[in-house]
Protein backbone atom coordinates (compact mmCIF):
# COMPACT_ATOMS: atom_id res chain seq x y z
CA UNK A 1 0.00 0.00 0.00
CA UNK A 2 2.73 2.43 0.88
CA UNK A 3 4.48 2.74 -2.44
CA UNK A 4 4.55 6.50 -2.60
CA UNK A 5 7.38 8.47 -4.04
CA UNK A 6 8.45 10.30 -0.96
CA UNK A 7 9.90 13.74 -1.60
CA UNK A 8 10.84 14.45 2.00
CA UNK A 9 11.08 12.68 5.35
CA UNK A 10 10.24 14.43 8.59
CA UNK A 11 11.21 12.95 11.93
CA UNK A 12 9.06 14.26 14.79
CA UNK A 13 9.64 11.35 17.14
CA UNK A 14 9.67 12.51 20.76
CA UNK A 15 8.11 15.88 19.98
CA UNK A 16 4.97 16.94 21.86
CA UNK A 17 2.02 19.07 20.76
CA UNK A 18 2.09 21.46 18.90
CA UNK A 19 5.55 20.83 17.44
CA UNK A 20 4.66 17.99 15.00
CA UNK A 21 2.17 20.15 13.08
CA UNK A 22 4.41 23.22 13.37
CA UNK A 23 7.26 21.25 11.77
CA UNK A 24 4.91 19.68 9.21
CA UNK A 25 3.59 23.08 8.11
CA UNK A 26 7.14 24.34 7.66
CA UNK A 27 8.46 21.27 5.83
CA UNK A 28 5.51 20.77 3.50
CA UNK A 29 6.12 24.26 2.15
CA UNK A 30 9.46 22.97 0.83
CA UNK A 31 7.97 20.30 -1.45
CA UNK A 32 5.93 20.81 -4.62
CA UNK A 33 2.16 20.47 -4.93
CA UNK A 34 1.38 16.80 -5.62
CA UNK A 35 4.47 15.51 -3.82
CA UNK A 36 4.35 13.39 -0.68
CA UNK A 37 6.07 13.92 2.66
CA UNK A 38 6.46 11.06 5.12
CA UNK A 39 6.42 11.85 8.78
CA UNK A 40 7.20 9.92 11.98
CA UNK A 41 5.67 10.86 15.34
CA UNK A 42 5.37 9.27 18.76
CA UNK A 43 2.80 11.70 20.22
CA UNK A 44 -0.54 9.78 20.33
CA UNK A 45 -2.36 13.11 19.92
CA UNK A 46 -0.87 13.48 16.45
CA UNK A 47 -3.11 10.60 15.27
CA UNK A 48 -6.02 13.03 15.46
CA UNK A 49 -4.03 16.23 14.93
CA UNK A 50 -2.32 15.49 11.62
CA UNK A 51 -5.63 14.66 9.85
CA UNK A 52 -7.22 17.79 11.43
CA UNK A 53 -4.31 19.86 10.23
CA UNK A 54 -4.68 18.39 6.73
CA UNK A 55 -8.42 19.05 6.64
CA UNK A 56 -7.93 22.65 7.70
CA UNK A 57 -5.06 23.38 5.31
CA UNK A 58 -6.50 21.51 2.32
CA UNK A 59 -3.86 18.79 2.17
CA UNK A 60 -4.36 15.02 2.30
CA UNK A 61 -3.25 12.26 4.67
CA UNK A 62 -2.85 9.29 2.30
CA UNK A 63 -2.11 6.72 4.96
CA UNK A 64 -0.97 6.22 8.52
CA UNK A 65 0.61 3.14 10.01
CA UNK A 66 1.54 2.35 13.58
CA UNK A 67 4.54 0.24 14.42
CA UNK A 68 5.66 -0.23 18.02
CA UNK A 69 4.64 3.21 19.26
CA UNK A 70 5.76 5.10 16.17
CA UNK A 71 3.12 6.60 13.90
CA UNK A 72 4.07 6.82 10.24
CA UNK A 73 2.13 9.29 8.08
CA UNK A 74 2.14 9.93 4.36
CA UNK A 75 0.88 13.42 3.62
CA UNK A 76 0.32 14.78 0.12
CA UNK A 77 0.69 18.48 -0.55
CA UNK A 78 -2.41 19.59 -2.45
CA UNK A 79 -2.12 23.34 -2.38
CA UNK B 1 -38.31 42.15 -6.20
CA UNK B 2 -35.49 41.71 -8.69
CA UNK B 3 -33.51 38.55 -7.86
CA UNK B 4 -30.19 39.97 -9.03
CA UNK B 5 -30.57 42.98 -6.82
CA UNK B 6 -31.44 40.74 -3.92
CA UNK B 7 -28.33 38.61 -4.54
CA UNK B 8 -26.12 41.69 -4.64
CA UNK B 9 -27.70 42.75 -1.36
CA UNK B 10 -26.94 39.40 0.28
CA UNK B 11 -23.38 39.49 -1.06
CA UNK B 12 -22.82 42.94 0.44
CA UNK B 13 -24.19 41.76 3.77
CA UNK B 14 -21.93 38.68 3.75
CA UNK B 15 -18.92 40.88 3.04
CA UNK B 16 -19.71 43.02 6.06
CA UNK B 17 -20.20 40.05 8.38
CA UNK B 18 -17.67 39.67 11.20
CA UNK B 19 -15.48 36.60 11.58
CA UNK B 20 -15.02 35.89 7.90
CA UNK B 21 -11.25 35.59 7.91
CA UNK B 22 -9.21 32.49 8.67
CA UNK B 23 -7.71 34.28 11.63
CA UNK B 24 -7.31 33.87 15.40
CA UNK B 25 -7.28 36.80 17.82
CA UNK B 26 -6.31 36.18 21.40
CA UNK B 27 -6.13 38.43 24.45
CA UNK B 28 -3.34 37.31 26.75
CA UNK B 29 -4.28 38.92 30.04
CA UNK B 30 -2.78 36.43 32.47
CA UNK B 31 0.85 36.44 33.54
CA UNK B 32 0.66 32.85 34.79
CA UNK B 33 3.18 30.48 33.25
CA UNK B 34 0.67 27.69 32.58
CA UNK B 35 -1.79 30.00 30.85
CA UNK B 36 0.96 31.60 28.77
CA UNK B 37 2.17 28.16 27.64
CA UNK B 38 -1.40 27.19 26.68
CA UNK B 39 -1.83 30.48 24.79
CA UNK B 40 1.40 30.00 22.82
CA UNK B 41 0.59 26.36 22.00
CA UNK B 42 -2.78 27.42 20.59
CA UNK B 43 -1.19 30.34 18.74
CA UNK B 44 1.61 28.33 17.11
CA UNK B 45 -0.82 25.49 16.35
CA UNK B 46 -3.22 27.90 14.64
CA UNK B 47 -0.38 29.44 12.64
CA UNK B 48 0.68 25.95 11.55
CA UNK B 49 -2.91 25.32 10.41
CA UNK B 50 -2.52 28.26 8.06
CA UNK B 51 -4.39 30.80 10.18
CA UNK B 52 -3.33 34.39 10.67
CA UNK B 53 -2.67 34.86 14.38
CA UNK B 54 -2.72 38.08 16.40
CA UNK B 55 -1.92 38.07 20.12
CA UNK B 56 -2.90 41.07 22.20
CA UNK B 57 -0.86 41.17 25.43
CA UNK B 58 -2.41 43.23 28.18
CA UNK B 59 -2.13 43.71 31.97
CA UNK B 60 -0.21 40.89 33.70
CA UNK B 61 0.41 39.22 30.36
CA UNK B 62 2.88 41.96 29.32
CA UNK B 63 5.47 40.69 31.85
CA UNK B 64 6.17 37.77 29.53
CA UNK B 65 7.45 40.20 26.90
CA UNK B 66 10.05 41.86 29.11
CA UNK B 67 13.66 41.23 28.19
CA UNK B 68 15.66 40.53 31.39
CA UNK B 69 18.88 41.67 29.69
CA UNK B 70 17.58 45.15 28.88
CA UNK B 71 17.68 48.03 31.33
CA UNK B 72 15.96 51.38 30.89
CA UNK B 73 16.28 54.61 32.85
CA UNK B 74 13.91 57.44 33.52
CA UNK B 75 11.16 55.47 35.27
CA UNK B 76 8.86 56.95 37.89
CA UNK B 77 8.96 55.66 41.48
CA UNK B 78 5.84 53.57 40.91
CA UNK B 79 7.24 52.36 37.60
CA UNK B 80 10.38 51.17 39.36
CA UNK B 81 8.25 49.40 41.95
CA UNK B 82 6.24 47.67 39.23
CA UNK B 83 9.44 46.79 37.42
CA UNK B 84 10.78 45.21 40.59
CA UNK B 85 7.59 43.36 41.56
CA UNK B 86 6.61 41.99 38.15
CA UNK B 87 8.33 38.92 36.65
CA UNK B 88 11.28 39.96 34.51
CA UNK B 89 10.51 38.04 31.36
CA UNK B 90 8.83 34.79 30.34
CA UNK B 91 11.28 32.59 32.23
CA UNK B 92 10.35 34.19 35.54
CA UNK B 93 6.61 33.51 35.29
CA UNK B 94 4.95 31.39 37.97
CA UNK B 95 2.33 28.66 37.82
CA UNK B 96 -1.25 29.68 38.64
CA UNK B 97 -1.47 26.68 40.97
CA UNK B 98 1.08 24.59 42.86
CA UNK B 99 3.85 27.20 42.53
CA UNK B 100 4.95 26.24 46.08
CA UNK B 101 7.55 28.98 46.49
CA UNK B 102 9.11 28.06 43.18
CA UNK B 103 9.36 24.31 43.73
CA UNK B 104 6.24 23.44 41.73
CA UNK B 105 7.22 25.70 38.83
CA UNK B 106 10.74 24.25 38.72
CA UNK B 107 9.31 20.72 38.80
CA UNK B 108 6.94 21.45 35.94
CA UNK B 109 9.73 22.91 33.81
CA UNK B 110 11.84 19.84 34.53
CA UNK B 111 8.93 17.58 33.59
CA UNK B 112 8.34 19.51 30.37
CA UNK B 113 11.97 19.01 29.40
CA UNK B 114 11.79 15.27 30.15
CA UNK B 115 8.57 14.85 28.16
CA UNK B 116 9.91 16.99 25.32
CA UNK B 117 7.17 19.62 25.62
CA UNK B 118 8.26 22.88 24.01
CA UNK B 119 9.37 25.57 26.47
CA UNK B 120 8.15 29.17 26.22
CA UNK B 121 11.50 30.06 24.62
CA UNK B 122 10.97 27.45 21.88
CA UNK B 123 7.33 28.45 21.44
CA UNK B 124 8.24 32.13 20.99
CA UNK B 125 10.87 31.12 18.44
CA UNK B 126 8.33 29.01 16.53
CA UNK B 127 5.75 31.82 16.72
CA UNK B 128 8.29 34.25 15.25
CA UNK B 129 9.07 31.89 12.37
CA UNK B 130 5.38 31.27 11.66
CA UNK B 131 4.61 35.00 11.54
CA UNK B 132 2.48 35.23 14.69
CA UNK B 133 1.81 38.93 15.34
CA UNK B 134 2.28 40.20 18.90
CA UNK B 135 0.58 43.43 19.90
CA UNK B 136 1.23 45.00 23.29
CA UNK B 137 -1.41 47.11 24.98
CA UNK B 138 -0.13 50.67 25.19
CA UNK B 139 -2.30 51.47 28.20
CA UNK B 140 -0.90 48.56 30.25
CA UNK B 141 2.63 49.66 29.42
CA UNK B 142 1.85 53.24 30.45
CA UNK B 143 0.19 52.10 33.66
CA UNK B 144 3.11 49.94 34.75
CA UNK B 145 5.66 52.30 33.22
CA UNK B 146 7.05 49.60 30.94
CA UNK B 147 9.11 50.97 28.04
CA UNK B 148 9.17 49.69 24.47
CA UNK B 149 12.97 49.49 24.79
CA UNK B 150 12.82 46.86 27.55
CA UNK B 151 10.67 44.47 25.54
CA UNK B 152 12.00 41.36 23.77
CA UNK B 153 13.39 41.36 20.24
CA UNK B 154 10.62 39.69 18.29
CA UNK B 155 10.18 39.93 14.52
CA UNK B 156 6.48 40.91 14.59
CA UNK B 157 5.99 43.19 17.59
CA UNK B 158 3.77 46.25 17.80
CA UNK B 159 2.36 48.54 20.45
CA UNK B 160 -1.29 49.44 20.04
CA UNK B 161 -4.64 50.03 21.69
CA UNK B 162 -7.99 48.36 22.08
CA UNK B 163 -9.27 49.54 18.70
CA UNK B 164 -6.59 47.53 16.90
CA UNK B 165 -7.49 44.45 18.91
CA UNK B 166 -11.22 44.91 18.23
CA UNK B 167 -10.58 45.36 14.55
CA UNK B 168 -8.56 42.12 14.47
CA UNK B 169 -11.12 40.30 16.63
CA UNK B 170 -13.99 41.37 14.41
CA UNK B 171 -12.33 39.90 11.34
CA UNK B 172 -11.36 36.67 13.10
CA UNK B 173 -13.15 33.34 12.98
CA UNK B 174 -11.89 32.60 16.50
CA UNK B 175 -11.45 34.96 19.45
CA UNK B 176 -10.02 33.85 22.78
CA UNK B 177 -9.28 35.46 26.12
CA UNK B 178 -6.67 33.90 28.37
UniProtKB/TrEMBL annotation, chain A:
One Pfam match, given by its short name, reads TusA
Which spans of this chain does the record mark as coiled coil?
none
Gene3D superfamilies on file: TusA-like domain
Domain named UPF0033 is located at 10-34
**Family membership noted in the UniProt record:** Belongs to the sulfur carrier protein TusA family.
Name of the featured protein: Putative redox protein, regulator of disulfide bond formation
Q: Which organism is it from?
A: uncultured spirochete
What lineage is this protein's organism placed in? Answer: Bacteria, Pseudomonadati, Spirochaetota, Spirochaetia, Spirochaetales
